[in-house]
# Entry
Amino acid sequence: MSSPWSTPPPKIPSFDFRGVKGLPSNLIAGGAAAIAGLVILLSTYFTIDEGERGVILHWGAVVGEAGPGLHFKMPIITTIEKISVQVQKEAFEKVGDLDTRLQAYSRDQQPATIAMAVNYHVTDPKAVYSQYGSLANMKQRIINSRAYEQMKTVFGQFDAADAIQKRALLNTEVFNAIRKSVSGPVVIDSVQIEDITFSQQYETAVELRMQAIVKQQQAEADKQKRIIDADASAYEVKAASDAKAHQIEVQGKAEAGAIQARGDALRNNPGLPTLVAAEKWNGVLPTTMVPGNTVPFVNVQK
# Structure
């Protein structure tokens, strides 16, 4: 059996540019010169898009800056580095297996993992290139390092519970700290703390504490309800007693008034009892009488 290397490799055809059959060598040289001239001509201009600035370099030295539009330059000598001046976002987050979230400790020594976004924009493209060489290098050396440093400092001034309950205040103080610490050809536009995750032990403790608080509040609510119900029952009993007392008082006054009226009538009309008895007499004389008594309504005068 023959080795696979025993077969010689195929020959690569070679060309002799000194002359091509049917074409004179001077024509080929002229074509090459035309192509070279076209390349040089195309390298004499460049365009800058909106949202970018062009840093103009002569032999690698910064000599100026170009705005959006069409510009001309010297071939070979001049090169252009494009820098974005639009708002950029640096996200400290977890995406798949890549986790760039920030690690920090609260004032009560609770470890936390923080997802945060920092928005910024370049104000001096020439300085970005001169000092850092590229936008990516500037982001790594200024934005990332200072954002992490200031986040840890500010977060350490908050207890874990306050970091959750006062998220807006924490966000504002982190933004102010990062913006103040970043100096150079860039401005921090905004900072958003998107998520704060504590350890599982702390999360469990918080959940149990919240459950205890809910139970305590429910017990207090039940207690207040019982007090209100008892007060209502007592009020009903008191209202019924007051109503009964008022009824007795009114009835007593009415009876006293009636008695007084009868007394006044008797004083003013001594014969009234006899009249009332006569009005109620059925006309039948009693069959028996106590000795010495007189017949009712019969007044015998001599």
